[in-house]
Amino acid sequence: MMRMDSIRAAVAPPGRHAVTNASRKGDESRLRILEAALVEFGAGGYRSTTTRSIADRAKTTLPPLNYYFGSKEGLYRACAEEIVLRYSEITNDAVSGATQIIQSVSSPETARSALKTLVAASVRLIIGSPVFILGNGIIARELSEPGPAFDIFYEQLWLPGIERNAKLISRIKGEVDVSAESRLQSILLISSLPSFHARRRVAQKAMQWSGIGESELNLLIEVLHRQIDQI
Amino acid sequence: MMRMDSIRAAVAPPGRHAVTNASRKGDESRLRILEAALVEFGAGGYRSTTTRSIADRAKTTLPPLNYYFGSKEGLYRACAEEIVLRYSEITNDAVSGATQIIQSVSSPETARSALKTLVAASVRLIIGSPVFILGNGIIARELSEPGPAFDIFYEQLWLPGIERNAKLISRIKGEVDVSAESRLQSILLISSLPSFHARRRVAQKAMQWSGIGESELNLLIEVLHRQIDQI
DNA sequence: TCCATAATGTATCGGCTGATATATTTTGTG
DNA sequence: CACAAAATATATCAGCCGATACATTATGGA
Prior knowledge:
The first copy, chain A, is mainly alpha-helical. Helix content of chain A is 78%, strand content 0%. Chains A and B meet through helix 2, helix 7, helix 8, helix 9 and helix 10 of A and helix 2, helix 7, helix 8, helix 9 and helix 10 of B.
């Protein structure tokens, strides 16, 4: 009982992190595993995904998974952090634009325009981006059934997003402080998108779309923009 | 191999169904198991829920589960059908009212009012009803990760709901035929609700609500009604 | 009351899963 | 080139899960 290996692996994944000049092959493997995990977790969720399937996709075996990430749960959390990272990078422009407008003295119409930009960017990212569908699967699932990554997404993605949009909506309506109503509108607006991702199959079937391409995205954005126009 | 028992159990759960005068105790057990399954599946989803936990909650053992429902999946599907049944019963009034308005020659304002009634009823059912939270958990999960019950919900719940609301929206706008836009608006409107259920924790945290009671529901309905006013 | 059948419990099987002890190979460095 | 450390593979374990063979009890009609 209480073997050295398990302690080392569980507490701080690989000791390698403390070392400055580690081998490059290790990093490549780590990334390959992470990528495979994103695919597998994204397709099947946490429970349904087996570490073996991840190892297979990463063209390796089981031990490296624990070697680099400590456990299945550690790997899952690493996926969540990776998703947040990529997400932030992509939305960086739209977000910093909005932040600037929120912090400065701006007209309702400026705020409205920023909100539209944010929403359009989110739609393209969440629903349109093929490379991001897997990440969105993980996000959507974590929303409807909080798992090991809930807190990561909540604190780094949802709460900031809700607050940002609520402030913009508030500005549009000329409120001095953000009202409960505005915050609720923000939640509903933001909720629509992962929902739409999750209900992709439902929506596609109901709309009789053969796929979700440019024209479909544009229609969706148009409808949302019109909704924003009427705030 | 190919034993009688398994064939009988898998194809048509119990032969009992063909019999007119079966024992009452069997029905009670069946219901108790179904109720327990609704709780367990609702709390944990299909994969995470074990047949043992269901049997425990139903204060019985494993064999009766297969005896009455053939398999874990059969039990899950039975839960979905039960949910659809209860759901339909509760929304029956609002739905038949809306149907009547759709089929007759009605003014935009009549349609708008019917849509508001439908949405308010849905909000109370999906978000407000404590007895229905478990069913909604199953529905929400099945939306974001299609499982054995997806088709049941799609055909009996979502598609009819989307079509109904789309027709009302279309009527409100005075369209002759239901436009793609109206249908999309309908999807977005309907999507908000299970989303809000799923994101209950997120919303509650973000709104700093201690719970979702009458006043919170009313605020939510108010925001949605205002949205409908601006269609 | 008796008995066929329905209902439930006990015990167990086979398969899968996460994890890891152990052995082997690969890598970077002096 | 040699060698310590890092990385990867093999083999295996222990636990859980769905399912069911088998045994037992309960039910209700004749």
